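Re: folding output
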Amino acid sequence: MVCKRFYNIGELSTILGKTVASIHGHLSRKQYDAVPPPIKLGRRLAWPVEGVDAWIAEKAQRADVEVKNQRSQFPVRRRGRPTKKEQRERGEQ
């Protein structure tokens, strides 16, 4: 017999670094990009361990792809006021 493991909302909040209240808020708005979708066990919400691990892995992979895309699209720009040397090179005064 295979026993499935589940996280309760307290354990999920620790794993995701969110409060229980914020998880409830995301679930009420059906924001499944912020928290993984739960299943109901009786009156309680539960999250399969494998499902949460897969959701986290997918989010991490998507974030890696976005970072790589951002680096290739935009040149590195300095923020703030240009240095005196940069102003002279541009002909500004």
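--- second protein (sequence, then structure) ---
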Amino acid sequence: MDAATVGAAILGANSILLLALAWAIGVLGHVRLVNNYRAHPERYPDAQGLGRWMGFTLGAGGLSFGLCALAWGARAIGEDQAGLWVGATALLLVAFAFGGLARYRRVPPASAGTSKGR
């Protein structure tokens, strides 16, 4: 077995893992799998929205990794193109995951000494 076949198989396995996590978080509602939510659930009042966001994000990343694994395994793309594809997908996954955490996080109330009426 050559390196491209092994790399595509590992990438495909990671794709399946991400799709399973997307299903567990987004569909089954296991939001406690999201690390920030597990540590501070009181900061995220819309747990269902956060779960949906993370489910879609992880699902899209899993699909992208899976398509890349298929293309690389079928020799439709080379190792350099697969690396760029995986790198871009990983960066977008991180950006959208942090974006979801920021979007659904409750903004803490302003301190008592800084009210607008003063």
